[in-house]
């Protein structure tokens, strides 16, 4: 078997640490495992408050916090061509061979992939979310995605449901889209040392309290469960615009002693919250793949979740109870979960999660996608433009115009600042342990 090809990867997204979420965790853990496989990985994201410039994280992971501020929902303001000079400089300085963009509504991701394609780089895109087809926002987002993926080398989705959604929205050939699920750091998310008593059953909710995460369902489900089971208590971690409704529900039904509101929970504290409970409740209305379910299962909690998106693909049937996104059906699912709790062994569940979901496996599968992307043939501008023309009568022409202007700006930049005038940086290489552990969690890293 030939020697493994060493890739030089630029991960790009508006979503990265110190912000916390599923995309942020995915990029961090995937990057760490790719570093351990011997690849070079650099992350590019926008500045966070006073965090701007270059930072190094665990394992020698280099992060460019470019001086763009978030405009809306952690996204930078769309500039089309404003990011071209800095993207070009990073690609040349770091001698990048492949660009990997994450998340469909990341402005920085879309712009970086556009510039990388103009400069002849191979690009890979990972979609982490599901989108609709009917509302105005989804229609516009799907058209942007069609533009971005018109020339993508390969694409990755986190579930089969997500793959179907992405193929329908973007028009990508299904054979160019791979399914690689998320994973969980089982070394961090471990069950409690001693098993909890079942005299009082604790149901844990950790989620952003927004409409998409089903916060309105919780408002109706929690009082009914508390009425049916006097020994059930809820712990709700998370913050968001719907928190007010939950607070009002707690006051209305006098459940202050049975519903504990924690507010925002740092990722480093999630495990300590999870191990205080028996059941994890996920009420999302849409979800491509729910990492929170993996973290709860790894801590030995039985999961009750809405049957939406890619959630049914995440856990085996004996580790999760699924329900329709309907209050009465969710109450019945919680009743079923309470009845089967005596059969749940947290340690056994944790060991099964170790086998099912592993970041090193995710990295190795992503490595195969990179290999395939780099084998894709290179095309000239005219052939590339023909792909954009197929995106629609008017949109196709507009996309072609955008790419032609980007191509012209790139050539002007080459004349103004030739590539040989940009100093290449030496690689920062650390000796990595060869065990199967994942590099230490980011919670103790310097972000200041």
Structure description:
The chain has helices at 22-36, 84-93, 107-118, 136-149, 160-170, 215-228, 243-252, 270-274, 291-298, 327-340, 346-356, 359-374, 381-389, 395-416, and strands at residues 8-12, 40-46, 53-57, 61-66, 70-72, 75-76, 98-102, 122-127, 154-157, 177-179, 201-206, 232-237, 259-263, 279-282, 302-306, 320-323. By secondary structure, the chain is α/β, with parallel strands linked by helices. It has an eight-stranded mixed β-sheet with strand order 3-4-2-1-7-8-9-10, with helices on both faces. Strands 13-12-11-14-15-16 form a six-stranded parallel β-sheet, sandwiched between helices. It has a two-stranded antiparallel sheet with strand order 5-6. A hairpin with a 2-residue loop joins β5 (70-72) and β6.
What does the secondary structure layout of this molecule look like, with pairings?
Blueprint: E1 8-12, H1 22-36, E2 40-46, E3 53-57, E4 61-66, E5 70-72, E6 75-76, H2 84-93, E7 98-102, H3 107-118, E8 122-127, H4 136-149, E9 154-157, H5 160-170, E10 177-179, E11 201-206, H6 215-228, E12 232-237, H7 243-252, E13 259-263, H8 270-274, E14 279-282, H9 291-298, E15 302-306, E16 320-323, H10 327-340, H11 346-356, H12 359-374, H13 381-389, H14 395-416
Parallel strand pairs: 1-2, 1-7, 2-4, 7-8, 8-9, 9-10, 11-12, 11-14, 12-13, 14-15, 15-16
Antiparallel strand pairs: 3-4, 5-6
Helix pairs in contact: 1-12, 2-3, 6-7, 6-10, 13-14
């Amino acid at each position: 078997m030939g020697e493994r090809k060493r890739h030089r990867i630029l991960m790009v997204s508006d979503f990265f640490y110190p912000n916390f979420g599923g995309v942020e965790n995915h990029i961090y853990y995937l990057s760490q495992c790719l570093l351990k496989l011997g690849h070079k990985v650099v992350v590019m994201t926008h500045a966070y408050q006073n965090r701007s410039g270059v930072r190094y994280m665990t394992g020698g992971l280099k992060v460019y916090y470019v001086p763009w501020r978030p405009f809306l929902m952690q996204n930078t303001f769309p500039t089309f061509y404003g990011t071209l000079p800095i993207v070009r400089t990073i690609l040349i300085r770091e001698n990048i061979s492949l660009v990997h963009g994450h998340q469909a509504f990341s402005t920085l991701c879309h712009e970086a992939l556009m510039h990388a394609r103009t400069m002849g780089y191979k690009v890979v895109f990972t979609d982490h979310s599901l989108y609709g087809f009917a509302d105005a926002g989804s229609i516009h987002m799907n058209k942007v995605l069609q533009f971005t993926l018109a020339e993508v080398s390969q694409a990755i989705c986190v579930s089969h449901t997500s793959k179907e959604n992405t193929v329908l929205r973007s028009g990508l050939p299904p054979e160019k889209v791979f399914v690689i699920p998320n994973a969980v750091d089982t070394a961090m998310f471990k069950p409690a040392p001693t098993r909890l008593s079942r005299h009082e059953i604790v149901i844990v909710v950790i989620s952003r309290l927004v409409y998409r995460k089903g916060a309105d369902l919780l408002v109706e489900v929690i009082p009914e469960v508390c009425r049916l089971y006097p020994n059930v208590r809820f712990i709700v971690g998370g913050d968001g615009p719907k928190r007010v409704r939950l607070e009002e529900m707690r006051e209305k039904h006098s459940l202050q002693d049975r519903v504990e509101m924690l507010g925002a929970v740092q990722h480093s504290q999630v495990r300590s919250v999870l191990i205080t409970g028996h059941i994890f409740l996920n009420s999302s209305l849409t979800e491509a793949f729910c990492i929170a379910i993996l973290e709860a299962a790894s801590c030995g909690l039985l999961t009750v979740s809405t049957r939406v998106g890619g959630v049914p693909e995440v856990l085996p049937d004996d580790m999760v109870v699924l329900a329709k996104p309907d209050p009465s059906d969710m109450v019945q699912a919680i009743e079923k979960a309470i009845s089967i709790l005596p059969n749940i062994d947290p340690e056994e569940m944790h060991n099964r999660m170790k086998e099912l979901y592993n970041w090193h496996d995710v990295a190795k599968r992503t490595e195969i996608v990179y290999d395939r992307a780099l084998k894709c043939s290179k095309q000239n501008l005219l052939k590339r433009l023909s792909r954009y023309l197929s995106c629609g009568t008017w949109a196709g022409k507009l996309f072609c115009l955008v790419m032609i202007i980007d191509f012209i700006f790139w050539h002007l930049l080459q004349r103004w600042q030739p590539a040989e005038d940009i100093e290449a940086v030496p690689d920062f290489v650390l000796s990595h342990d060869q065990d199967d552990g994942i590099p230490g969690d980011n919670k103790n890293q310097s972000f200041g």
